[in-house]
Amino acid sequence: MNFPTDLIIFGPNDIDLQSSPLRTSIQAETYVLGAFNPGLTRLPNGNLLIMIRVAEALRQPIVGTHIHAIRWDPEQGYVLDEYPLDDVNAADPRKFQLLNHPVRIMALTSLSWLLPVELNVDGTEVRHIHYDKIIAPRKSYQEYGVEDARISKIEDTYYMTTCSVSAERHSTTLYTSTDGLNYDLQGIILDHQNKDMLLFEGKVNGKFYALTRPLGDLYFAYPPGSPYLPGPAMHLAQSPDALHWKPTDAPFIRGRKGSTSTAKIGGGTQPILTDQGWLLLYHGVERQGIVGIYRTFWALLDANDPSRILRLEDQTPVLESRPDLLHELKDQMYLSDVVFTTGILDAGDHYIVASGEVDLACRITHMPKEVFT
């Protein structure tokens, strides 16, 4: 599907790594593997803010017979850990697997931090890069980085969820702000391996609602005649204060047989309230190669009971990867067929949608509201 406004707004070449938090303690040469998956919100001045995930990687991770990973240490700052090449599988450019362990153990080829970038009111021009507002690891549960911000403005507060990565746990952490630009860390709100948590942009019957995606290495089979497929799925949770969450008992959006998103699905944009109900854009993955094909689909939920799915469009994607947008970055591409949608705003007769394009750059798309009718 083509849209009149569909562009790459920010990429790895737009970042000055002299302002990177890693410069405080790592002398080895690094580069921006990707500047992608931007959380999206509107600031009080009317401009937009994208909170960009910057994946910073070693230029030469392999030295001699060892491969290296970046880690943040509470006492030493950023350090390099080394692993013998014979003990790893580095087929995926984003991570490598440590072999000879009884469970699946991964290490990352980069460390992620968050960069706030201010855009104009329609998201088509960069106004200011807020290097002084960088969000970097601060706690031991963030030792391998802070990833994939999602922002929801609820009443007078901006709530930003992120994925914090460490050997301790793979958790969801919450930041809050009163101005959309300066964020305070509130800590862990969902524990081990719960990714793509998004708060609904508004309360339902006085409660906060959120999408969650608990992960694991084991899933149980549906009955042979079931329309559903086992694997990662989206669920709902509710909270009185956005800190303490109870999952709802019923399952929510799951992979369905015949869909083009059979490998896994997960939350994309923060659900926003429309005249028809809560609108949600999410990602679905088709099995292909190591990473798969990521596309964006959508669903409409009941305004008063979000567990009621009014419409689920999981056959035809609303957004797919567009390699033609990346002609200036083609030499830096290390993935293909990946679009990861991460934010949405109402702009009158259309929606402004933010996505990560092939884990490399930030994409802004203006979608007419007729798309969702």
From TrEMBL:
Record's keyword annotation contains Transferase: yes
A GO molecular-function descriptor: hydrolase activity, acting on glycosyl bonds
Keywords linked to the UniProt accession: Glycosidase, Glycosyltransferase, Hydrolase, Transferase
Presence of the UniProt keyword Hydrolase in the record: yes
Family classification: Belongs to the glycosyl hydrolase 130 family.
Protein name per UniProt: Glycosidase
Species of origin: Spirosoma taeanense
